[in-house]
């Protein structure tokens, strides 16, 4: 299912540059923690899914996982630095082809999308396979995403060229979460922590909705006015909650899988 990117060779980058800055090192650790916890929670799919983050201080470069490695194998140093032309600037290996063509175009076309997390996690993907709106605003967790989602109805097969990447980026618009019909989901955000928090709670909301629907009984949606009010309440402290959520993930991993930081 996955394809290695046939990337052109890039010139070697000198050490002691901005890519060695503390902020870049922290971004690597944060992103590696997200991969590891997503793997633990069953939010991965083989070697096919991908997370990326724009390199701090370099809007023309992004961190992404290398082709051929499962989420549970990712470490901070294993992440690649790529440019928007397909060059690997730092790291061993190449990105998976769809990872490059989706993430490079999302980061290039949407300046606000510093982080972009794409998965085929089972519950959210199941909702993306159904006719009609994916989330039905019947559970409190789902209200975190009220007014923040969009549906990309035009499944275009594998994203193996810039045109499909551009189409996906354009479909996101002002949303933070895109349900890619017949495909999966993508979460974009300003920080690694916020993208992780949204990804985690999106899957939890989708799981709760799936379980509720499996009873065969009718869902009881929250009225729009209350849904909007609850969303606003949630958003007031969302950034700090996301930061603390990721810190808790890193503490757990530091005890149980400390190699993620290497």
UniProtKB/TrEMBL annotation:
InterPro entries from the UniProt entry: Aldolase-II_Adducin_sf, Aldolase_II/adducin_N, Aldolase_II/adducin_N_sf
GO function terms (MF aspect): actin filament binding
Pfam family of the protein (one): Aldolase_II
Coiled coil, from the record: none
Superkingdom of origin: Bacteria
Family: Belongs to the aldolase class II family.
Protein name: Aldolase
Source lineage: Bacteria, Pseudomonadati, Pseudomonadota, Alphaproteobacteria, Acetobacterales
């Amino acid at each position: 299912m996955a394809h290695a990117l046939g990337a052109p060779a890039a010139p070697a980058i000198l050490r002691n540059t901005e890519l060695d800055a503390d902020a870049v090192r922290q971004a690597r650790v944060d992103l590696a923690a997200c991969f590891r916890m997503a793997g633990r929670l069953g939010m991965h799919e083989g070697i096919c899914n991908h997370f990326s983050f724009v390199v701090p201080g370099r809007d023309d470069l992004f961190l992404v996982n290398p082709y051929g490695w499962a989420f549970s194998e990712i470490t901070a140093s294993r992440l690649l630095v790529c440019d928007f032309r397909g060059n690997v600037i730092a790291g061993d290996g190449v990105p998976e082809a769809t990872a490059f063509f989706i993430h490079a175009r999302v980061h290039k076309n949407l300046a606000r999308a510093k982080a972009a997390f794409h998965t085929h996690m089972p519950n959210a993907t199941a909702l993306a396979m159904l006719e009609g709106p994916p989330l039905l605003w019947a559970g409190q967790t789902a209200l975190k995403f009220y007014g923040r989602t969009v549906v990309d109805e035009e499944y275009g097969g594998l994203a193996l060229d810039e045109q499909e990447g551009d189409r996906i980026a354009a479909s996101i618009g002002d949303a933070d979460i895109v349900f890619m019909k017949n495909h999966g989901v993508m979460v974009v955000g300003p920080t690694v922590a916020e993208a992780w928090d949204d990804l985690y709670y999106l899957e939890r909301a989708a799981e709760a909705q799936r379980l509720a629907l499996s009873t065969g009984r009718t869902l009881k949606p929250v009225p729009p006015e209350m849904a909007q009010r609850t969303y606003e309440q949630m958003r007031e402290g969302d950034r700090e909650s996301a930061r603390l959520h990721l810190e808790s993930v890193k503490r757990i991993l530091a005890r149980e899988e400390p190699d993620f930081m290497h």
